[in-house]
Each structure stands twice: as structure tokens, then as C-alpha cells.
């Protein structure tokens, strides 16, 4: 039989002090590293909360210690004006996580290779390029994008990211993909998608009103990307993974299906149009004005594994995309 043992106030205070010391060491060791998620602070916060409750109503001691050492994170609905304007946040789906870019870890995220926030010098991500011209950016980046994430998850992603980088200079959102249905209902889903994107934009604008937000189009176009993979192992995968036959870029004989490609492209453009419409209502929000749609996808930009996907580039492809999108970022941040 288990018995809950309530610690004494003195014992609890000692444990809190030890935890704070560990956190300080961790901060010194990791201070220059890119922030992905504040795991140490999160664990510390949980222990402080538990031990505060254990002190049974003490208005000083543990409660005041927790208040003075908790990481600065603005409560919901407030701004981050007291924090320096610096850093970058990435929100969206797996196209931002470097998924399938590491041949040693097939089908898994490789955040170091993210074209937006990666730290791999071979990629030379937007984060690395921004840090080169604005050194205060270094060490202030968070990527909350997740594989298979639809627009409905953006508010949660933004909430988590703003706890790590509370006043970002740049927010990159790449979300068009998972919400695509290809079943004839996409046009009726556009407004819902737009509302979900706008909810995240409003949250960011409210909590970090000086942040610049960039909404990214679907990189490349289905026709050009489909031509790039002809003759590779990706063709049957592309056919099998299509949301439905009406959007399948290849016919049963694995030849380009132009009718279906036009349908798929039109659906993507519908989501891009909705994204641009809601962006226009939020201060500090910018689309890429279709820049990403002109990205030229090459055969060499993919790792041809069983987890191949149109939006999952290898290191060479992610480096090319970062280089291609940098002029747009520089423009909206007035770096020229």
C-alpha cells in the first residue's frame, strides 16, 4: 500500500534551492544553444508548484521563491513589450521540421535541418542568416511545427512558442497541406481554415505586437514537382499517398495525370488565397506574395525512402529553399 508523505516546509525549501541551482547550471551550459523547448524550466515549474502546495498556505518562502525564479512568460492576452525584440518562431507542419532530411533517421524530424530554424551550416537556414545580420537573434529560436499538424493546432503551437521566445522579430508559418481534403469539400473548408489561421495570427499580434509574421505558400507547384520525380521510387509513393484519386498526380500507368494535377493545384491555391485574406486583416502579417510557389524543385532535392513526401526535402533541397526565401524575409524585415 502506498502512502503520500507530505514534506516539511524546510525540506521542501531545500529541494527547491537544489533545483534552482541545477537550473542555473543548465542555463550556463545551454545558454548559447538554440532553444527548442524549455524542458528544464518546465520540470522545475512542476516541482515548485507541487512543493508550494505542500507548504499548506505559506504566503512567503516557497511561493515567493517560485515567483522570483520562474521563466518570464507572458500570461494569455498580454503583450511581450518588456522583452527585447529578437529571435524567430516557426509554426506549422512537417515541412518546417526537416522530416526525412536525415538519411540516418528515415521518416523522422531533423530540426537541425529545418529551412526556417535549423542549425546545420549546410542548410544555412533563415535563422542562421538572420543571426548573421542581427547577432541578438542567436540562441533565440523555437520550432513548434509538427508532422501532420492542421491549422487547428496553430494556436497551441503559438502559445508554446511564445513562452520560449516571447517577443520574436520573425514568425514563419507554413501550414498548407494537412487540411487539404481532395474530396470535393475543400471550398467549403476554406473559411474554417482561414478562421483557424487568423486565431493564431491574432494571438501573436496581441502578445507580440512588434513581431513580423510571414505566411508561406506551398513551395513549388504540383506539376513541376511531379515532373522532377518521374523515373524515381517516389512516383508509386506519390500515387499511393494521394488524398484521393481526384488529386492523384499520376494515373494507374504512373504517367502524369494533368486533369488531377490541375484540380490539386486549384485546391492549394484556394487555401493560399484564404491565407492571404486573413493575413491582410492582421497588423505585421505578410504573405510571401507567391514567392514559394516559384521554387524550382529538383530531382536531387529528395531522399527517396518509403517515407518520401512532396514537402520533405533533403539537406540540399532545404538549403535551396532557405536561400530562395531569404530575400522575402530580408524585405519584410527591412534588412536592405
> Separation of termini?
68 Å
Overall structural class, as computed from helix and strand content, comes to mainly alpha
The H/E string reads HHHEHEHEHEHHHEH
Percent of residues in helices: 40-55%
Mean pLDDT: 83
Instruction: Detail the poorly predicted runs.
Output: 1-72
Number-wise, the strands total 5
In terms of DSSP E residues, the strand content is 5-15%
Shape descriptor: globular
Backbone CA Rg: 23 Å
List its traits:
single chain, 336 residues, mainly alpha, 5 strands, globular, disordered N terminus
Characterization of the model:
The chain is mainly α and 336 residues long. The chain is 42% helix and 6% strand. It has ten helices and five strands; from the N terminus they run αααβαβαβαβαααβα. The chain has helices at residues 9-30, 39-54, 62-69, 126-133, 154-164, 186-207, 222-229, 234-240, 258-279, 315-332, and strands at residues 88-92, 141-143, 170-174, 212-215, 285-287. Strands 2-1-3-4-5 form a five-stranded parallel β-sheet, covered by helices on one side. Helix 6 links the parallel strand 3 (170-174) and strand 4. Helix 1 packs antiparallel against helix 2 (39-54) and helix 5 packs parallel to helix 6 (186-207). The chain is globular and about 60 Å long. It starts with 8 loop residues before the first helix and ends with a helix. The model is unreliable at 1-72 (pLDDT under 50).
Amino acid at each position: 500500500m502506498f502512502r503520500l508523505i507530505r514534506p516539511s516546509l524546510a525540506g521542501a525549501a531545500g529541494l527547491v534551492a537544489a533545483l534552482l541551482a541545477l537550473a542555473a547550471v543548465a542555463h550556463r551550459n545551454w545558454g548559447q544553444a538554440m532553444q527548442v523547448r524549455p524542458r528544464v524550466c518546465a520540470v522545475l515549474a512542476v516541482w515548485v508548484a507541487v512543493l508550494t502546495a505542500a507548504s499548506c498556505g505559506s504566503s512567503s518562502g516557497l511561493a515567493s521563491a517560485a515567483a522570483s525564479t520562474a521563466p518570464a512568460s507572458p500570461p494569455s492576452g498580454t503583450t511581450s513589450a518588456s522583452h527585447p525584440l529578437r529571435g524567430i518562431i516557426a509554426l506549422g507542419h512537417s515541412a518546417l521540421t526537416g522530416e526525412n532530411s536525415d538519411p540516418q533517421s528515415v521518416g523522422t524530424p531533423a530540426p537541425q535541418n529545418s529551412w526556417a530554424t535549423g542549425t546545420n551550416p549546410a542548410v544555412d537556414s533563415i535563422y542562421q542568416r538572420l543571426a548573421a545580420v542581427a547577432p541578438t537573434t542567436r540562441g533565440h529560436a523555437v520550432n513548434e511545427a509538427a508532422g501532420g499538424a492542421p491549422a487547428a493546432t496553430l494556436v497551441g503551437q503559438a502559445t508554446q512558442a511564445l513562452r520560449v521566445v516571447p517577443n520574436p522579430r520573425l514568425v514563419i508559418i507554413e501550414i498548407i497541406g494537412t487540411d487539404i481534403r481532395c474530396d470535393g469539400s475543400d471550398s467549403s473548408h476554406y473559411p474554417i481554415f482561414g478562421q483557424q489561421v487568423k486565431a493564431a495570427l491574432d494571438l501573436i499580434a496581441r502578445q507580440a505586437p512588434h513581431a513580423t509574421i510571414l505566411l508561406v505558400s506551398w513551395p513549388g507547384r504540383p506539376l513541376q514537382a511531379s515532373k522532377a520525380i518521374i523515373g524515381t521510387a517516389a512516383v508509386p509513393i506519390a500515387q499511393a499517398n494521394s488524398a484521393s484519386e481526384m488529386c492523384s498526380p499520376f494515373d494507374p500507368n504512373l504517367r502524369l495525370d494533368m486533369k488531377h494535377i490541375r484540380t490539386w493545384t486549384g485546391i492549394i491555391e484556394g487555401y493560399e488565397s484564404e491565407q492571404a485574406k486573413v493575413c491582410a486583416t492582421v497588423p505585421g502579417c505578410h504573405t510571401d506574395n507567391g514567392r514559394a510557389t516559384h521554387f524550382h524543385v529538383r530531382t536531387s532535392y529528395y531522399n527517396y525512402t518509403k517515407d518520401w513526401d512532396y514537402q520533405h526535402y533533403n539537406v540540399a533541397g532545404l538549403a535551396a529553399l532557405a536561400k530562395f526565401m531569404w530575400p522575402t524575409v530580408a524585405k519584410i524585415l527591412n534588412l536592405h
